[in-house]
Amino acid sequence: MADLINLTIDGVALAVPKGMLIVDAAKTIEKDIPVFCYHPKLKPVGLCRMCLVEVGTPKIDPATKQIVKDEAGATVIAWQPKLTTACTTPVSEGMSVRTQSKPVIDAREDVLEFLLTSHPLDCPVCDKGGECPLQNLTLAHGPAVSRYDYADKQHNDKHAPLGDLMFIDRERCIQCARCIRFQDDIADDHVLQFHNRGRAEEVITFSTPGFDSYFGGNTSDICPVGALTTADFRFKGRPWELKTAASVCGHCAVGCNTALNTRLNTRTGVREIKRVMPRQNEQVNEIWLCDKGRYGHHFTHAANRLTHPLIRKDGALQEATWESALQLISDKLKTVPGQKVVGVIGDRLATEDAWLFGRLMTDVIGAAPAFVSPRTASAYADVARAAGLGADADFKALGKGDVIVVVNGDVEEQAPVWFLRLRQAVVDRGAKLIVAHHRSTKMHRYAAGIARFAPGAAAQWVAGQPAELAALKDARNAVIVFGDEKLSGHNARALAQSLAHALAEAGHADKPNSGLVPLYPHGNTQGVCDAVDPSRGAMPESADVAWLAGVGDPADAPRAGFTIVSELFLTPLAAAADVVLPAAAPAEREGSYTSGDLRAQRFWPAHPAHGESRPDWWAFQEVARRMGKDWSFGGPEAIFAALAAAHPAYNGLSYAGLAAVKPQWPMVGRAEVNFGGTVYDNTAGLGARTARVPVGGAAEAPVEPTLADLTRPEPALYRAGDLIRHSAVLAGRLV
Ligand code: SF4
Ligand code: SF4
Ligand code: FES
User: Fold this and answer.
1) Which of 15, 226, 573, 638 is the most buried (most CB within 10 A)?
2) Whether 220 contacts 228, CB under 8 Å
3) Could you write out the DSSP letters of every residue in 592-660?
4) Does residue 158 sit within a domain?
5) Which of 651, 676, 707 is the last residue before a domain boundary?
6) Is residue 666's pLDDT more than 70?
C-alpha cells in the first residue's frame, strides 16, 4: 500500500498516494482543475499556466519547528503569496488547495484571454468543435469579451501537412507540447519540435518522411485544440453526428480496444466508419492505438466487397441466393466421405466462427480437425496457450527486478502498442531487457543484453542454453516475447517449447505476470487455434472438397474437386472456387477475439452488413442444419457459452463477464476530454484473461532452416495485406 498523504481541496479532506500531483488528487474527488499542457499519461511541464491554484501548507513556528494551531486548535495554513501550477506540484501532508477562489478564477480568465489572442476562433468549421478543451474551458472559465484587436492577430499556415497522415493548423496551436512530448517520451520517435520563439513559435516535423512514426494519430487525440487533424478524418464529420460502437482491433495480437465512430452517408444511405478511436483499457492499450489500427479500417467499405453468394455455373461464378448456395454445399458434402474433405480457417475470423467451423468439420462432416492459416503460427499456439501470461498479468506492473526477453521478434513492427508498453517497463520502471535476433530492431535501443544468431536459428540459439537466458533465474517476473520470423512451423514450435522450458526451469511457470507472449500475425490467431484445436500434421495438397474460410490467398491452399470459399473479397482463391460465400466484416457483426496475451474480448456491430454478407458462424450453422444437425445457436453469445463449457481455457467465462467494466485510472473519456483527450472511456467491457492449459510432449529438436524459410520477408507493420491495401491514406506507407 502506497504511503498516503492527507490534504484538503476546497475544504474537502482526502488522502492520496505520496507523489501524486495536485491536479490528479483533485480528480480523485471529481474536481476539475482545468489544464491544457498537462496530460495524465505525460510528464508534467507547466507550460500553459491554466491550472493555477492557491496552495497553502501548515504554518511552522520558526522557534519551535512545530505546526501552529489557532485558538480552536485547527492548523494554521500559510498560503503561498503567488498562485501555483497544480500540474507540477505534488501533494504534501496537511496541504490546503483552493481551486475556486477569486485569484484563481481571475488567473484562468487571463490565461484564456491570452491564449485566444493568437487563436483563429474558427470553431464552426473546426474538426475539434464539440470535443475541444479550448472551446469547453473558454465557455467555463473564459472572459466574455476580449481586449485584443482582432486585426492584430498573427496569421499562420492553416493546413500544413505534417507528413502524409497528419495536418497542422498552426493558427490553432496553443504550444502545449503534448504532441512533442508524446512522440519523445512515449513513442520514442523524435520527429516533432518547436521552431521559432514567442508568437512565431510553431510545431514542425524534422524527420524524412515527415512525422515518421507508427503512433502519430495519438497526438490528434491528446491535442487540446483542433491543431492536429488526421488525413483520414479531417472534414469528414462533426462529433455530434457520429455514433459509436465498441470494437477490438484485429490487425495484430495486442487486441487494442477501439471505438468505431460511424456517420450516415446521406448520398448512399449507408452508415460508414469515419474514424477509429482508442477506447481505454489500461491492461491492453491504455489509451493508445498505432496508425495501422487507426487507419486500416477502409476495407469494410471497399467498393469491391462481395455482396452476394456466388455459384459456378457454365464455368463462371454467378450471383446466387444464400439458400441455393447453402443447399449446394450441404448436398455436395453429403455425397463425399468425411476423410475426403479438408477445412482451413483463417486467423482473422472470430473465435465463435472457429468453434463452429471446427465442430462442423469433425462432428458433422466427419473430416479431420480443421487446419488454421497461417500454418506457422498455428504450429505453436497450444504451447503459447500452456505457457502464456497468468490471469492478472499486466505489462504496467513490470519494472525493477523483472526481466523481459524478446527472441526473434520485432515488437514495434509486429505489435506496436506492446512496444510502447514494454519500452516503458524498461525505460521508465527499470525492467531488464534482453533482445536476441539476427538483425537490429528498435527494441535494441533499450536492451541491457543483446544476442545474435543466424537467420532462422532462433530455436537452435535457445536450445544451446545461452548465457543471456541464465538471467531469468533471478528475475521477479520473466516475460518472453517471441516471433516466428524465418521459421518453419516445426522450428517455431521448437522455439516456443524451448522458451517455455526455460521459463519453467527458472521457476516462472506459474507466476501471474510471467509467461510467453507470441507475436502472432493477427488479432485472433490464439482464439481461432483454441477453438479449432487444429490439425498440426501436413495439410493435404488435394481433396474432394475443400472449405477455405477467411484464409486470404495462401500459396499452400489445397486444391479440390469442389472448393468453397468464405471471404470478404473475390481473392484469386475465391475467383477459382465453386461456391463463394460473402462474409460480414468485423464491424458488421458481434464476436470475440483472444489476444496474444490470452485476453478474450468482445466486439460489437457498428453498422449493417454490406449487401447480403453474413457472419461466418451463421453460414457454418446453416450447412450443419441442412446436414441434419440440430444446431440452433441464436448468435455468438450462445456459441461462446458452448465453447466456454467445453474448453478449459474458457471455462467460467461468459459474454456478460467479458462486458464487465470497473473504474480505471487515469479518468479519461467523453466526460473528460479536457483532461485526457478525445479517447473513449470503456463502458462496453474490459474482457477477461483465459486460462493456461498444459500441453504434453517433450521439446522437439529444431532442424536446419530451408531456403523457403530464409527468403520469407521480414515482418513489417505496413506489409501490404488483403485488408490495409484498401486504406488509401496508408498507400504511401505500404511495403
Ligand atoms: S499541435 Fe496541439 S498538442 Fe501540439 S503543441 Fe500545438 S496545441 Fe499542443
Ligand atoms: S497495436 Fe495492433 S491491435 Fe493495437 S491498433 Fe495497432 S495493429 Fe491494432
Ligand atoms: S501549466 Fe499546468 S496544465 Fe499547463
Assistant:
1) 226
2) yes
3) EEE-TTSEEEEE---SPPSTT-B-HHHHHHHHHHHTT------SHHHHHHHHHHH-TTTTT--HHHHT-
4) no
5) 651
6) yes
Query: Residue 524: which pLDDT band, with cuts at 50, 70 and 90?
Result: very high
The domain spanning residue 13 has which CATH number?
A: 3.10.20.740
- Chain mean pLDDT for the chain: 96
Q: Is 289 in the pocket of ligand 2 (CB under 6 A)?
A: yes
For residue 426, is it within any domain? yes
Determine the average pLDDT of the residues in 595-601: 98
Give the CATH number of the domain where residue 435 resides: 3.40.228.10
> Taking residues 457-465, what's their average pLDDT?
97
CA distances in angstroms from 604 to 101, 259, 273, listed in the order given: 46, 10, 13
Above 60 in pLDDT, residue 610?
yes
**CA 554 to chain CA centroid, nearest Å:** 26
Neighbours of 74 (CB within 10 A): 8
Whether 500 and 572 map to the same domain: the answer is no
Reading the block at residue 269, the C-alpha cell is 444511405
Please compute the mean of the pLDDT values over residues 424-436 and round it to a whole number.
Answer: 98
If DSSP codes are grouped into helix, strand and coil, which group holds residue 128? Answer: coil
Residue ending a domain, choose from 470, 492, 520: 520
Tens of pLDDT, residue by residue over 189-223, are 999 999 999 888 999 999 999 999 999 999 999 99
Averaged over 548-571, what is the pLDDT? 96
Both 466 and 398 in a single domain?
Answer: yes
The pTM of this model reads: 0.97
pLDDT at 144: 87
Tell me, using a 6 A CB cutoff, whether residue 177 lines ligand 1: yes
DSSP assignment of 75-94 equals BPEEE-SS-EETTT-B--TT
654 near 592, Cβ under 8 Å? Answer: no
> Residue 20 is part of which domain span?
4-100
Residues at CB less than 6 angstroms from ligand 3: 35-38, 46-51, 85, 87
Query: Does position 535 have pLDDT exceeding 70, yes or no?
Result: yes
Rounded Cα–Cα distance for residues 453 and 273 (Å):
44
d(CA 167, CA 425): 31
Distance 170 CA to ligand 1 centre (A): 9
Q: Is 251 in the pocket of ligand 2 (CB under 6 A)?
A: yes
Total structural domains in the chain?
3
Where would I find the beta strands (DSSP E) of 121-248? 160-161, 166-168, 192-195, 202-205, 228-230, 243-248
Does the pLDDT of residue 2 top 80, yes or no? no
Q: Cα(223)–Cα(571) distance, rounded to whole angstroms?
A: 40
Using the mean position of ligand 2's atoms as its centre, give its distance from the Cα of residue 266 in Å: 31
Is residue 90, in this structure, part of any structural domain at all? yes
C-alpha cell at 229: 487533424
- Contact between residue 551 and residue 344 where contact means Cβ atoms under 8 Å apart: yes
Averaged over 276-296, what is the pLDDT?
Answer: 98
Are 416 and 358 contained in the same domain?
Answer: no
pLDDT band at 145 (very low <50, low <70, confident <90, very high): confident
Dihedral sign, Cα of residue 162, residue 166, residue 171, residue 176: negative
Nearest ligand by distance to the CA of 281 = 2
pLDDT tens track for 489-519: 999 999 999 999 999 999 999 899 999 999 9
Residue 421 CA to ligand 1 centre (angstroms):
23
581 and 471 assigned to the same domain:
no
Co-location of 386 and 352 in the same domain: no
What's the number of CA atoms in the CB half-sphere (13 Å) around residue 674? 19
* Structural domain contains residue 356: yes
Residue 1 has what pLDDT?
52
Do 539 and 639 share a domain, yes or no? yes
For residue 581, the domain's CATH number is: 3.40.50.740
Does residue 89 share a domain with residue 73?
yes
Give pLDDT, residue 534. 93
From the number of C-beta atoms within 10 Å of its C-beta (0-12, 13-18, 19+), residue 628 rates as exposed
Helices (H), 471-609: 489-505, 525-532, 572-575
Question: 585 and 500, same structural domain?
Answer: no
